[in-house]
Amino acid sequence: PPHCPHLSAPVAPLAPTLSVRLSSLVSSPLWWQKLRYSEVMTLPDSFIQRQQLDASMADTFLEHLCLLDIDQEPITARNTSIICTIGPASRSIPKLQEMIKAGMNIARLNFSHGSHEYHGETIKNIREAVETITSDPLYFRPIAIALDTKGPEIRTGLVKGEEVELEKGSHVRVVTAEIDKDKTDGKIIWVDYPNVSKVLKKGSKIYIDDGLIGLKVTELGSDWVDTVVEAGGVLCSRKGVNLPGCDLVGLQAVSERDEADLRFGVAQGVDMVFASFIRSAQDVKDVRRALGAHGRHIKVISKVESRQGVQKFEEILAESDGVMVARGDLGIEIPVEKVFVAQKMMIGRCNSAGKPVICATQMLESMVSHARPTRAEGSDVANAVLDGADCVMLSGETAKGQFPVEAVAMMHSICREAEAAIFHQQLFEELRRLTPLSSDPTEVTAIGAVESSFKCCAGAIIVLTTSGRSAHLLSRYRPRCPIVAVTRSPQVARQSQLLRGVFPALFHPLPAPVWADDVDNRVNFGMDIGKARGFFKSGDMVIVVTGWIPGSGHTNIMRAVNVP
User: What does UniProt give as the signal peptide span (predicted)?
Assistant: First the structure.
């Protein structure tokens, strides 16, 4: 449709037949260059999920890489969700609608900045933008709202004259007394952590503003620390401070300000919380306690951005609904050359546990001021998708950048290309092997549905879900095709945006008197959604997953059907 161009991208014509077994072509050193489609099986011209099909049929990962083709069109459906930070550059209703059309799935509000009144107005704008962008239920896009807490972070005070330059080799005193809160200049820097002199020692490093400014400790006092500037730069007000290798004694996971912000979020009906600087499972429990009974349905996503958080990752993951790989502070707390190791480890463990994982920080940073990203940034986004991230996140690119809509569109394009290059068959086999024997009918049905979708080259999996669990399990096993999740719950629809490959479809009509008729109505709605968005068309094969009785927890029926 004209108002959602990214949902119906043009697709190159399908080669007439499916490829033969690779083993018969290995006689040449460049055998993959000779691979062509044989007369084994013919697929209809309407078939959508065919991009990089040669590579997907490979026997080994190396063969898969050899068969990737830059002239293949990317998949029509983008399975990776895009999270956009909303700020001054993007909080107006027209701009939000442009970003939704470009591909935004989740709107992130950074509570390190701004008042409750400011964020309340932004939430109102987001909801109005969603409701007014289209009246057609087939193209309605549920947009989730995420509250990102300030967390137990350390920040500098207000700078006299808005900014000051710190020169390399100059001496600066770091202070904590409240009387100096607004006196930060080239000689004094105030920080909001009273124990700073207790956790540091001579030779310790202090990093400010994502590591752009570096200080080395030379002397310590009761409430002050003398330092020498090792890496100079321009210091502005309220910048983040990192103390790598220090045990931050007395720094609570949930401050009084965080508790007030979380209560505000519950009252506003946010869908998820991005909990900053999570260092242990107890920190996650403290966030849930602060959300209270009224916020028990809000998803808690733990931001792992410290060495301690990486070391205690397993216990954090077990207590969380998902994880964010927050590479900004993490790249200061651990050596920058180790960040990719931590990223791959955390994404892998989240995939193994079946929990959503977000990759964030500086993904398209150059697009804050440029209309196109660097080549390295494009590869970074693609590799996060190939690693297994459910979501990728934009921060300053959309909050304060000059090209917020272009950044979302670029992220959308890169994700589509990367998803086409995933070796889905190998990934599914590994995920299935890692899954212990289960007597849960919903999980068994999900595994069977995903495997069947590979076998018949399904255009989509249509699932009817009440709580969202069935869609979650299907997403866990990473089908190649999109998952159209039909639900009557607006919150379940929005929260499903965290899951790779899930396209929530909000079904408004009341339940039909006869259960079978209600199932048919919802399945037909899912098929209409898929056809409208270009996932498949009449005559294509889809997998339908439903329950045998009403309610949550009874999904146990899988059908392979042709789209009418």
Answer: none
Cα–Cα distance for residue pair 147/548, rounded to 1 Å: 37
Identify which of 505, 493, 401 has the alpha carbon closest to the alpha carbon of residue 106.
Answer: 493
Residue 511, amino acid: P
Rg (CA), the chain: 25
For 272-304, what is each residue's pLDDT tens digit?
A: 999 999 999 999 999 999 999 999 999 999 999
Query: Token pair 């995939």 is at which residue?
Result: 351
DSSP 8-state code for residue 404: H
Total count of residues recorded for the chain: 564
According to DSSP, residue 294 is labeled G
**DSSP secondary structure letter of residue 362:** S
The CB density around residue 51, as the number of other CB atoms within 10 Å, is: 23
At residue 463, the 3 state secondary structure works out as strand
**336 exposure class (CB count in 10 Å sphere: 0-12, 13-18, 19+):** exposed
82 conformational bin, left if phi > 0, alpha if psi -120 to 50, beta if neither: beta
128/248: higher pLDDT: 128
Q: Using CA atoms, how far apart are residues 339 and 168, in angstroms rounded to an integer?
A: 26
Structure confidence at residue 339 (pLDDT): 95
- Phi and psi at residue 66, to the nearest 5°: -65, -30
The predicted-structure confidence for 245-270, as pLDDT tens digits, reads as follows 888 877 888 989 999 999 999 999 99
For the residues of 148-204, what is the DSSP string, one character each? E---S-EEB-PBTTSEEEEPTT-EEEEE--GGGTT-BSSSEEEBS-TTHHHH--TT-
CA angle 531, 535, 537 (to 5 degrees): 45
Q: At what angle do helices 404-420 and 375-387 cross, to 10 degrees?
A: 50
Side chain identity at residue 151, one-letter code: G
Q: Do residues 532 and 460 lie in contact, with contact meaning Cβ atoms separated by under 8 Å? A: no
pLDDT, tens digit (0-9, with 9 covering 90-100), for 310-323: 999 999 999 999 99
Which amino acids are annotated catalytic? 108, 155, 303, 361
**What contacts 24+ positions apart, CB below 8 Å, involve 529-532?**
529/138, 529/484, 529/486, 529/503, 529/505, 530/459, 530/460, 530/462, 530/482, 530/484, 530/563, 531/563, 532/1, 532/138, 532/139
pLDDT, the chain, mean = 87
3-state SS assignment for residue 377 = helix
Please, which residues have CB within 8 angstroms of residue 386's CB and are 6 or more apart in sequence? 418, 421, 422
pTM of the model: 0.85
pLDDT tens figures, 322-357: 999 999 889 988 999 999 999 999 999 999 999 999
CB distance 284 to 316 below 8 Å: yes
Where do the domains of the chain lie, and which CATH numbers do they carry? 5-66 (no CATH), 83-148+266-419 (3.20.20.60), 154-242 (2.40.33.10), 424-562 (3.40.1380.20)
